[in-house]
Every structure is written in structure tokens, then in C-alpha cells.
Amino acid sequence: MKKTIKTAVAAALISGVSTAALADSVFVGQLVDYTGPTAFVGKTYGPGIKDAVDYVNAHGGIDGTTIEMEQVDYAYKVPDAIATYKRWTSRNNMVAMQGWGTADTEALITFVAKDKIPVWSASYSGHLTDPTGKNPKTEKPAPYNFFYGPSYSDGCRAMVQWAASDAKEKGIENPKFLHTGDNHPYPNAPKEACADYAAELGFEVLPPVVVPMAPGDFKAQCLSIKETGADYAFVGNLGGSVVSLLASCGTVGTDVTYMANIWGGDYKTIEASNAQNYIFPSASPFWGAEAPGMELVNKIYEAGSMDKSEKPTHHYIRGICSAYYMMEAMKWAKANGGITGENIKQGMYATANWVPEGLEGVCVPSTWTPEDHRGTTTVSVNRGSAVDGKAQIEQIDTVELPRRDDWIGY
Amino acid sequence: MATTSLRPCGDFRTTYKDDQYLLLTKWIGIWTFAGIALLLAAPALFDGYIISLLILIGIYGIAALGLNILVGMTGQISLGHAAFFGFGAFSSAWLNSTTGIPAILTIPMAGVMTTAIGMIFGIPAARIKGLYLAIATLASQFILQDFFARANWFSGGSSGSLADTVSLFGFAFDSDQRYYYLVLFWTIVSLVAVANMKRSRDGRALVAVRDHYLSAEIMGINLTKYRILAFGVSSFFAGLGGALFGHYLGFVSAEGFTILLSIQFLAMIIIGGLGSVMGTMLGAAFIVLLPQVMEALTSSLFGMLPASMAGFAAGQAYIKEMSVGAAIILFLIFEPEGLAHRVKLIRQSWKLYPFSY
Amino acid sequence: MMNWALLSQLVVNGLIVGMLYGVVAMCFVLIYKSTQVVNFAQGEFLVLGGWVCLWFVTDMQMPFVLAFLFTLVFMTLFGILMQVVILRPLIGEPIISVIMVTIGLSIFLQSLMNWIFGNSAERFPPVFETESVSIFGLNVETAYILSLVMSFIIMAGFYAFFRFSKYGLAMRATAFNQQVAQSLGISVKQVFAMAWAISAVVSGIAGIVIGLVNSVSSSLAIIGIKVFPAVILGGLDSIIGGVVGGIIIGVLENVAEFVDGQFLNWGNLYTIAPFYVLIVILMIKPYGLFGTKDIERI
Known about the structure:
Shape of chain A: globular
Number of helices of chain A: 13
Oligomer: heterotrimer
Mean pLDDT of chain C: 82
Radius of gyration of chain A: 21 Å
Distance between the termini of chain A: 32 Å
Structural class of chain A: alpha/beta
Number of helices of chain C: 11
Radius of gyration of chain C: 19 Å
Number of strands of chain C: 2
Shape of chain C: globular
Largest sheet of chain A: 5 strands, parallel
Strand content of chain A: 15-25%
Distance between the termini of chain C: 56 Å
Strand order of the largest sheet of chain C: 1-2
Low-confidence stretches of chain C: none
Structural class of chain C: mainly alpha
């Protein structure tokens, strides 16, 4: 567990014996992965949340209330995450949590529902989107889980939809699709849902290929992929593993179009793997884009703790959005009975087509309802290629998926 | 080798019955009971954080006791203890959710299930010696871990499974304070059981197998039987500890039972002292408290450094990990017989003052 | 119907990667034979070699060949350092202590390297002109050809060293019986230090080669775990056995992947098959394929 500097301004107290309604500070826990297997993206997302909270604290807080946020680097070790969660609820009176990984977020679903603590995770697993268990396929209803952006399943569905139109353009008669990724909750999350949708759209769905999350030599797996004759391969991993996969498959001569999940696609991955025509989704503009909200993003970045030696990836911006949605919900809660977990949850339902103030054009308008925790089902599809070692990324499509009832929680 | 049966001179026993006592001197008995009284009163005296640490020490201590039977008393090396620990956790959760037997009963039942698995893995182990055995147990660790990640019906596959809260006749052990008593109960039972085993015939047979197995075989001790027995008993304690761990967290997943945990168990018994019951608990306490102490130390240390050295602060997580490895190495270089030996030396110097050396 | 083309390609891939496993297994057996120490930190030597070479190439802007040589020197010193500081105090301790020390060392080194070099994978800048050559229809990276060549050189070197040189003879004598060797005037401490130095250097080379192909990261240490089935197959005290074991494991992994991909679709056979085979071999032949049977005399 790693304690860093607490974001308390002078009035913040150390230990939480504050009643929710009259508090001048509330405690929020933040789980990050800076040293574990997903640190490749963790190191760019975590500071996004921290910087956003620091910025709001420095500019008046939530109508005067400061957010005391403790950041713990749990290195993706699930038991550590659970132990930290327990410590936060019993000793710190936590009211909300910024989570990180799929494994621990899915593990904590019932705990946070029982303790009534809303969680905004960096895991966009489809299993977190059904608050009432409406869909018979849902394993566990997740009434207190939120996330900003399209779910992994929706992201994969958007990729598949794009691939269907791409196959038609290229004249591929019987396009084949397969899923690659480790046997782990994070890559597994969209596997079934995506395969179903691909079959619906007329793809031949091939058996998935297991590729470990740790980098290594994947020539054997690539030979298998090449053998199957797949045209489109969904990349369920992120970071070093993707770099190794592309390198091994390039050597072996596997000719597929790679479509990534949202964490597997950013300029760093493309540059490190020298990828060509790499398709990946996003839920925010990229750094340096022209949008009114980017001004606030730049201010947050300048004042923040993020490493300034390289430009941030789009994950940083998504982190800021996630933090701002939480804070605006807290603001609503404060005005409507006090900042408690339950009220914050209600605050998430208060606005439809919601964009946080100051972030227009940056965060996709999202709507959460008590029966549907899919904030948005709009996915931007991008294509990136590494040219002379620099990534060139362009948006090629925007897929608006329907809010189908049989897709909730799945 | 750690020989725990040497008594210092001046400690005379004149009958066999005297030697059979678990608490060998009057003062040891007094300290033991005082310690138990203190532990019973702990939730009232200490805050929640300390209680959670004590629970972890108890759980890991039970599992480490099992490993100590295998490694310390029987001389077999096992690198797969975490897999059995995990098996206990998963089987308790599975039994509870599929058959509806209350969790308070599935905990010992999980221990029994793990015994069966341990004995199955012990059968090939009876033929293999030394290093080959260590590597075979390493392989079993990976195999079982892979099994946990794949077997959806048993362990929930890669997503893991939920473990219910334990309750006894409606009294739910759902808070740390209450769960502490359950763990304390099982810890004391395990400690007494293992100490008892050491003075029994089977315990002596195991020690004989460790010390010189050829002579033991000549004397009529069936090597295969006792080696398999050692695996079985050690797996029982591992499963028991694992089940307690699973119900404590409320969630069991395959990622929590890696080779690193096996190494930590080995570290516990080596740092504590091979073959020593009290040493096991000391070793478990050391391993559980080490990351906390390192974190407190490094926080205060880095707090004092100027901001320009912030790069070091990022290494806090790494320092904690390194400290486990460093502790193992340093203990093995400077105190190979473990904390139990150090405690004994301190006791002797206290007793024999001013003639201690 | 079997897909022979795929199978043959996978077997070639297995042979090439297996040579690397064999080289690492050889180092492992070398340390075990000479010093009776099981080196659980073998994987970390690989990673260290890879990182140091990368650091020389990128941060110090050296040409690759120079960086390679400097890394060899560094690994020699490192091996000697490890032996002097960590292992010497443990001469004579029971085997469990020795195993634990190397395990502790591996944990310590892993975290230390993560701290110093960062925990994300880094690629080497391109070193060879041609990226890959084609063998039997399978594209193989040039770095692996380098590794093949180096493996042969190393094995030949080992053979010549042990057979013909004075120091090699000293090592063989120490491995056979330490007391006798000492009484004949061989400095056992020197022999130990040499064994560790050689093992560190060769592992470092293997690490550089793999790093060239797959980018350097701490996950290279998994080879240190894969070396165990290899040495068990080959027998713990047979250097040739180590090489053979490594090749067998490499081929086995790829054949398992073939079976998995074509017929079973479980997804995990690539990683787990070597361990199943290990258990089976140990049940049939407790001392491995080439290991010397320990005849117990009363």
C-alpha cells in the first residue's frame, strides 16, 4: 500500500469522524496500478483522476467541501485491493471510490452494493452495467458501479460493426473474427458478448487464442492465428503484451487487421509496436485536439502531477472525465441531503446527456439511469499507424450502438 | 539442522512423564496463559487495524504450521504450499455454495478435502528426494494454479468465487472483531495439535525420517506411509488456513495464490525456525508485519527528504517487495536457525545472568 | 487431418527457442554441479543481462557489439559478487537454506531491476539489417540465428573448457568430490566464483538475445522457471542433459500449442504442458532422463 500526499487543504482533518452532511471534507479512495501488469496505462490514467481532484480542491472544492483522496498502488493484486477497500470503509468513512482493474472491481460488486459506496472504475466490463439484474444473463447486479465511456463489450461490438463494413468494402466474402487475450477477467469481459454480435453480423467466429498478459515470444500463438485464416483479430490485452504480439505476428507473417480494446490503443502502444492500420476505440479527443473543454484539461495538466516529459495519452483525458462526473454527482448530493454514497448514486441519475461543466467537446454526453448504467454507447473508431517512429492517428468512424435490452450487463 | 530437542543444562527431568509436558517449565506455562489472556482481550485493547493484522498472522500461521510439519519435521521441501492454501479457500467456498452446508462447518471440511489432494500429490513425492522433490512441488503449484484459473465449476475460473460470511447459530462473524475470535480458536487448536504431534509416536517417526531415513527404515518405519502422511497433514493445515482466509476476504480468486505466496510461507518457517511451533508464529508475524513496517519507515524517511529526491519516493512499492527478499537473505546468512533460536538464546542469557555468553 | 505444415513450423520454432532454454539450463546445471547450489535466480540473470545491454546501447549510445562486450564484463563481475556475498556464508548449510537464499535473491533482484529500469517493456533499436530469415517456411528473427550460433559456440566452449583446460579440470574435480579436490590443492572458492561468473555471463547472453527479439522486460524471468522442467528432463547433474531437456521443452511447448489450437481449444496448454510432463517423468524416472542415480549406501 502506498500512501502519497493527501490532497487535503488546510481545513481537512486526518481521520474521518465527520458526519456526512456537515463535513468540510469527504474521503475518496483511489486504487491505481503504477507498478503492476497494467502499469503501462495505469501510469497515465491515475494521474488524470488525481490532477482533476487536486484542481477542483484548489478552486473551492465541492461548494466548499474538500475531497480527501488517498491513492494506493495495489499493483493489480486483488487481495490487496479488497483489504484496502475494507480499511477505507472501516477507518476512513469512505463515501466514493475511484477503482481500477476488472478483477478487483468485479470482486467488489457485492461489497460496494452492501456498503452503498459508488465506484467509478477504469474497468469498463459489461458485467458492471446492470444495476437491477434486468438481463437474465447478468451474473451479479451492480447498482453501485459506474464508469465513463463505452463498455468493453460495446467497444468490441463497435469494432466488429466497423469490421463488417470494412469487409464489405474490401470484398471479403466470409470474414473471420477471433478474440485474443489472456485468461483473465479483463480480456475475458467482452469475449462472449462480442462473439455473439459478430455472429449476428455474419462473421465466422473462430475459437479464441490465449495470449498471456506478460510480454514474451508469441510466435506459436501467431502461427495458430495465421493458420485459422482470421481476417480480424480483437486484441484483449494491453501494453507490452500487445507490442510482443504484433512483433511476433509480424515476423511470422500473420496478416490480420488488429482491433483493440480501449486500453490497448494509444499512441505509445502504436509507436512501441510499429503498428500499421491499428484500429482502436476512444471516448474522448486526443491530446492537442481542438475542443472547448481542452482548455480546462490543459489547465489541469499544467497544475497537476503528471509526468511532463511526454504528452499524455487519451486515457489521461478519460480519467479527468471520470473524476469530474463523480465530483458533479457529489455536488448534486451536497445540495440534496448531503454527500453520502446513496445520494451520490442518485446524483448520477440527475442529468441526462450530461457533460461536466467546462469539459464540452471532451467528455461524450452520458446518461445513467437507475436501470441502465451504460453511460454512453457511442464509440469513436480510430486508426493509427507508426510513420518514422511517430504515431499518426485519425478518427475514421463514430459508431452509435443501440441501447439493446439484451446487452445490459453483458 | 535445527535440533530443537536440546535442553540447556540445569534443566533436569527424571521421569518420562516430565518430558511429555507441552509446556516444559513453569514459567513457559505462565507466559503462555498470560499471552492467551492478552489475545482474548485484544479487540478491546487494540484498534481495528491491529486486529486485522492479528487475523492475518493467525491465518498464515496455521498454514505455515502445516508447512513446518512437512519441511521442518519431515525434511521434505515443498514449494507448492500456496496452491494447497488456495485449494482450501476454493473448496470451502464451493462446498458452501453448492451444498449449503454452513460456512462454519465447511472450513474444517475444506481442510479435509485439501488433505486428500495433498496426499495425492504426496504419492509421487514419496519416491523423489531432495531437489527433485522441490521442483516437483513447484510444478504442482503451477498446475493447481492453472486449474483454479480454468475450472469454472469449482473456482469460478479466472473471475473467482464469492465466499459467504461465517455464522454460528445466527451469530454472524462479519466484522473483524468477531472473525478474530474464530481465527484465534483455530490457531490455538492448530498450535496444540502440532505441538502434540511432535511428542507423539508419529511425530518422532517423522523426525526420524528427516534425520536419517535409512536408519528409520531399518528400524521399521514405513517411509512411504510417513511421507504421504506428512504431506496430508501439512495440507490439512494449509486448507484450514486457506478456508479461513477465503471467508475473511469474502472473495477468492486464483491470482491470490501464486508462487510468491509459497515463497512467503517458506520464508515464515525459515525465519521462524524450522521445526519449532513457536517459531512458526514468530515467522508469520514477521512476514505479515514487514511490509507495514517498511511502509511506515519509508514514508517517514521520504517525508524528510527534499522534493528533488522525489524519484526515490516512487520506489516505495519496490522497496517493500525488495525487503522480503532481503529479509530472507539476511536471516539465512546471519541467523540460519531462525527467530526461535534467537529467542531461546535471549531466554538463556536472561536465565543464566551473569554467566551467559 | 493433421496440418503438417503448421506442425513443422511449430517444431522448428520450438527447436530454436529450445536451444535458448538449453543454454540457460546448461548454466543452471553448471552451478549445481560445481557448487551444489540450485539457482532460483537464473531468470533474473537473463533479465539483468538484457537490461544492462539495452542501457549501454540506448543511454550510453554505444554500438551494439561494444555494448555486448561490456555487458559480458559486467555479468562476470556480477556473478562473482553474488557468489562472494551471498553464497559463501552458506557453504555447508542444508539444502533448504540454499534454495531459500537464491529465492530471496531472485525476489530482491526482480524488484530492484523494476525500480532501476522501470517495469515496462523496452525494445532494442534495430541491430541487424535483415529482420528475419526463412527456415523451412518459418520466418525466424535474425537474433535467433545469432542465438543458435552463440549456443553452439558456448556449448563447444564448455566442452573444450571442461575437457582440455586446467580450470575446467579443477571444476570437474570439485563437482565430483569437494574434499578430495581441496586436498589436492584446488582452490574451491575460486572454482565456485568461476562457476557463478560463467553462468551469469551465459545467462546474460541469453537475455540479450531474447531481449533483441521480444523486447526486454521483467517477464523474461519466466525462462528461469521453464528451465526447471528442462533440467529435470535432462537430469540435474548432466550438462548435455540440460541442453537436451531444453530443446525437448521448447518443442513440447509448441507441439502442445498445436494440439491445443487444432483439437482441444483449451488455451493454456502452451504454458502448462511442460509441468505436466515434468510430473510424469519424475514418476517414471525420478532422476530424470540422463541424471545419475543416487545409489544409497548404508
